Structure of Glycoside hydrolase family 3 C-terminal domain-containing protein:
Amino acid sequence: MRRRTFLAVAGVTAAALAVPAQASATGHPFRNPGLPLRSRVEDLLTRLTLPEKVSLLHQYQPAIPRLGMAMFKTGTEALHGVAWSTDITSTPDPGAVRTAVATVFPQAVGLASTWDPALIRRVGSVVGDEIRGYHSDNPVVWGLNAWAPVVNLLRDPRWGRNEEGYSEDAYLTGVIATAYAGGMAGDDPRHLKTAPTLKHYLANNNEIRRDRTSSNLPPRVRKEYYEVPFRAPIAAGAATGVMAAYNLVNGRPATVLPDFDDVVRTWTDQVLMNVTDAGNPNNLIGSQAYFDTLAQADAATLKAGLDSFTVDNTNAGPTIDAVNAALAQGLLAESDVDSAVRHILTIRFRLGEFDPGGGPYGGITMDVVNSPAHRRLARETAGRAVVLLKNDGALPLRPAGTVAVVGPLADTLYTDWYSGRLPYVVTPRAGIAERVTVTGGEAVDRIALRTTDGRYVTASTAADGAPLTVGGSAAGEAQRFDVFDWGQGVVTLRSVANGKYVERDGFGATSGFVNRAPQPRDWFVHQQFTFEDAGGGTVVVRYVGYETVNDWEGPNNYLTVAPDGGLLLGSPDAAGATPFVKETISSGIAEAVAAAEGADAAVVVVGSMPFINGREDHDRTTMALAESQSALVRAVHAANPNTVVVVENSYPTTLTWEQDNVPAILWTTHAGQETGHAVADVLFGDVNPAGRLTQTWYRRDADLPDILEYDIIKARRTYQYFEGDPLYPFGHGLSYSTFRYGGPGVASQGPLTTESALEVSVPVTNTSDRAGDEVVQLYTHQRESRDPRPDRTLRAFQRVHLLPGQTRTVRFSVPVRDLAHWDVTRGRWVVEGGTYDVLVGASCADIRQRGSVRVRGETIPARNLSRTTRAVDFDDYADVSLVDTSKARGDSVGGPGWVSFHDSELRRARSFTARVAGAGTIEVRLGGPAGRLLGTATSPGTADKYTYTSVAAALTGADGRHDVYLVLTGELRVDTFTIR
């Protein structure tokens, strides 16, 4: 979901949108809850006129008074608690974001770090209850269609939205997503508490040019990896639809992927309601330039299987006009509209809208929001999500003495773009201070900025701040600012005068600055600056809020002082900026060192600011701590060897020095209002840590390929394929307890078949004097295969609680069919026969017990290229791109480059034919891209990239079993080919 520029609802008042059911409609069959759901839906559908049906395709579905239908809106954000929605009733800004004050749980990646599906289902249920509570208060603002969870796989930790997903592992993501969505949906077999929508289909894991980049997905990667986390919650009936992503997939915008009908709806017998992401239909004629007219774009979107258009904010007019135009032009039939509306109405019926009292969940009120029970669950979840990365005996801390609590995150809790507002705040310092005497501060520098003629930047003491001026002659409190360093030179400035952050005051080329923001915030994050050396002991200040240079803003992004003393953006470059002397009033590191030297232990709280260190629309360029934070850790550790580092951020971090030198390291996400209690609970041992990493933590940024590389098999990405030495492996996490694993028992009599299950049992014993949880993880590895297979694959896990000395036998059952992989030679799933290693341990790298099992499966035969073969079903490739065969469906291979087809039976083949578009050649070679040439087919060119023709070549010397290579030159697209 992107930022919105809001418009009024075209021709419809807010009051009309919320019209209650009229008495005249109560007698219709669709109002009878005793009838089958399908009958009720069809009855209502037949009563709607075509214009009424078309009006329901927009996100803001208007009220239809004659049938007693109220307004219905898709999209309440709820990734880790009720976050925000849009308020079309607000004045003077209809459609402004309304953020909920609700229970805020750990960010999604933190929820998954619990490895506890039962707990996450409870969290999802609470979120569903609180959405219902808000809905009861204002159904126009707070809709029951929830846009959560995000199931995009975290294959690259630099993704700006890493905190929104669960894991780099498809299976784990699917399990946690099913739990969260299932809790949100509720347990009633016929009704929904809320309607969860999975985001963002498909392969959406970069923000750079996110609406223009294409995720290249060979079939195996697509089937085995990227589809899996969407399939699991849909197949389980936990989610009620998917949202289309911004990116393209194999050259086709995700908004018009045929998958929504052809794939996603095949996973379930339930009716799904699929939606576009904000603005996406318009992207088809805008940044993506895929269609010429909105009528074509909207028609293609509906035909692809999307039902609701999230576009033009509250203004449904363009969508209605485009769909009507598509109907008039024959691009759509009324039956296409009916299909989408049928899906929409089915979800609305399941939500209880047309039942007396709103169905079984209709009685939930605002009383549930931030209830004591929900607060307790927030604390429990935050504690269970904490991961102990390292502990050389420094933890748990003794609940006595003095602890220096220092660091830029010690006294603050941050929220993210998809957080609700915290109902209360327990910071790390506050949580620790409930147990021991604490000293220290935020460990940030306090500075003043003085012009070369002796004037100081001055802030207001008013609670809401005022425009900054330059004119004070001394560095009093009004002239002082605390500098928070977020890395790579980016800082935020908090005014000492009123405790608020300095931010740009609106837009425009001459906008000033005001100390007004409670935290860095909002879409453009107008609180970001850098100091650049200007020589002679001076600096210039550059404003680096997101999207600083736009046609509507002007080119200036350096601060200057106006003649009247105002501080504004007055220069496009450093040469024209006002130089300042940056006076350091106090050193944050010096104060932290002083506190640490006199303490029994030091806790350094470092991490990220979720609106700055990567977020929607902005990827990270490094996984490192901010430079000043790293320096702080080193200085405090030198002053007090008994130093614990608490890292509070949303992604893997390159903590190589810290791992080598600091005795203990904890990691938590931004974990909501109970973060401080959770951190203290773990530090002092009231909670025995058992969170586990859901991503590989790398040692250096260079361990990762380009962020746009989506083929995890070829690029050797994630724990399944990574060949390097990670800092912390997938599944890693320590405990204050120790555990012994007994030998695994594999319950099988002879080879397993595809109709049986892999049954594994392993006794686990708590060998310590402290009760604790162990996350027992089951992996498999296929020893022999025609295709490259993962080093290991997570198949099951259990988080088990064990008392001191207690032994528990952990049992797993994995259907053998789940060991299948996608066979590109035949376009189907296959379980290959052979030996499979069974690996049980505490992480993917900490395997405690091993076994093996024989599986009686298939042997993939030699390729038969005499049958029509899709070029995209290759075994290997280099340099080619994957492209759309047509705008409607199909994937092709685009040159130049090469693709290979291994172990192909040629049988004295004499001819090669291919269906191609564009101009270029195809060389048919054996053994390699420079191997023996059998023949060359040439295409002189076609009318355009979607116009295909047949090309052919005679082959010589083609016999036996070989690896066949097709070497493409020119701008050629290859759809299918045969060798006979």
Q: What stands out?
A: The radius of gyration is 30 Å. The chain has 20 helices and 48 strands. The chain has five domains: 27-57+68-367, 386-442+590-703, 453-578, 737-855, 869-979. Confidence is low (pLDDT under 50) at residues 1-17, 548-552.
